[in-house]
Inverse folding.
């Protein structure tokens, strides 16, 4: 495991951490087997279409 040779300053640490942000998934409209249109993340669209995942 890599170990830093010098201590990173508090300002640099906080700046590095603040630049990373989680992004909201892009939602797509999908018609489920019941005929309803629901918005789900793109990676779950096929499961909803096939009825493997229920959106209540």
């Amino acid at each position: 495991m890599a170990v830093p040779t010098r201590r990173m300053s508090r300002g640099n640490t906080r700046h590095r951490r603040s630049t990373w942000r989680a992004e909201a998934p892009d939602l797509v409209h999908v018609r489920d087997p019941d005929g309803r249109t629901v918005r789900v993340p793109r990676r779950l669209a096929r499961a909803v279409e096939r009825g493997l995942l229920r959106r209540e």
The beta strands are 27-31, 37-41. Helices lie at 10-19, 45-50.
